[in-house]
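Q: Hi! First time doing this. I have a protein sequence and I read that you can turn it into a structure. Is that right? Here it is:
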Amino acid sequence: MTYLRRAIKYFIQTCLLLAIILGILMLSGMVSKDITVAFTHGWTSVWWILAIFAVMALVYPFFGYQKRKIRVIGDPAQARDGIVEALKIRGYVLESEADGGLKFHLSAPLNRAFRFWEDTITLTPVLEGWEAEGLSRDLVRVVSSIEHYFRNHGQD
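A: Yes, that's right. Below is the predicted 3D structure, encoded as structure tokens:
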């Protein structure tokens, strides 16, 4: 279900981006306001573009979201405060805690809206430390931020 929700949101996001760009071009007079003139094959071209966006949206969640291990030595309960602090520095706030796991989201409403509220980072305690799951481009920064925090505070 999460996969499908992410794919639909990505499809909507890319369609909105195309609509905004085309709207600006049409309003500025750079492109005809008539779809049959603006596109070579008229509405057929629009349907093909939407089909391509749909395929991209179905593939994107495979590559856009991932899991990564974070090596933090010690008791997860003791590491919790350090993780919350490290993510606070990156602009995340603690959303919820369940079964030792932590769930964060961006604190800035505009950043959340640009990501269609798919900005959640979930941290789960595992044997070697923690496992982080979320948007790939954010996950890289979050993992390095947590590891950097613990390295500088002498707990790693």
